[in-house]
């Protein structure tokens, strides 16, 4: 006698429940936003090895870089990144001097973070340089040095002409870099204080430019984004984090920003062939994928 098979209930009022095979096994991962703690991945870290090539490409690009619009030769202070000294900013400072700017290194040895006295001395240098030349000073900071530049501009906006940061993480999660543990060790302080982070994220009341790279292997690019504002902008360039201070495109963008007249600042506009190398549209960090 053949075995009876129970009928399957196909009533339209009882839809079939999805089985595990019917569900999406690979749901779309949420795009990283400002508060995402993920630092750049291993591939981007490996790409930091191109930094020496950026340095040597500077020599080939010098004839082009010397044809850029020159500013009025006002004073500029350049701050190095974490664990670095003024030697790392030497190519940038020499280039600025060749264009007629008065440059000053930060002069405090290795940058081990904002230890007691560091910001006070930097503020004294800013006031002294502004008084000596009877005009405001531009501040250029690489990585952690950009934090100094931003904070000094907030403390002394009358003595600050503009701020330009290179790969500086001021707007994202405090642990969205691959060096936050090293920072805690060198600075002898913890990252993530909400009061400190709110202060760092606040833009200075002067023209402020953030130059960043999506291929940065040290700092998550979404941590370097200025919020839209009348005096803030973001310039994306193809560069490594460690090579920004000698990358010809970065240097071009820095000089273009320094050449803006006082009181007549305008956002960077990459027209013509420059569109191939620079992006200025404000990135939607909440929807972009690093």
Q: Looking at this structure, what is the CATH superfamily?
A: Alpha/Beta hydrolase fold, catalytic domain
Helix content: 25-40%
Specify the CATH class.
Answer: Alpha Beta
Q: What is the annotated CATH architecture?
A: 3-Layer(aba) Sandwich
Give the structural class: alpha/beta
- Strand count: 6
- The radius of gyration over CA amounts to 24 Å
Percent strand: 5-15%
Main beta sheet, described? 6 strands, parallel
How many helical stretches? 8
Mean pLDDT: 87
Arrangement of strands in the largest sheet: 2-1-3-4-5-6
Low-pLDDT sequence parts? 1-32, 285-290
Descriptive account of the structure:
This protein has one domain: Alpha/Beta hydrolase fold, catalytic domain (Rossmann fold), CATH 3.40.50.1820. The protein has helices at residues 42-46, 51-65, 90-98, 118-133, 144-155, 180-187, 194-201, 248-258, and strands at residues 75-79, 102-105, 137-142, 160-166, 208-212, 232-236. The N and C termini lie far apart (65 Å). The longest helix is centred in the middle third of the chain and has 16 residues, at 118-133. It has a six-stranded parallel sheet with strand order 2-1-3-4-5-6, with helices on both faces. The chain is 29% helix and 11% strand. It has eight helices and six strands, in the order ααβαβαβαβααββα. With 290 residues, the protein is an alpha/beta fold.
Features:
Rossmann fold; six-stranded parallel beta sheet; 11% strand; disordered C terminus; alpha/beta; 290 residues
Précis, in short:
Helix content is 29%, strand content 11%.
List the helices and strands and how they pair.
Layout: H1 42-46, H2 51-65, E1 75-79, H3 90-98, E2 102-105, H4 118-133, E3 137-142, H5 144-155, E4 160-166, H6 180-187, H7 194-201, E5 208-212, E6 232-236, H8 248-258
Parallel strand pairs: 1-2, 1-3, 3-4, 4-5, 5-6
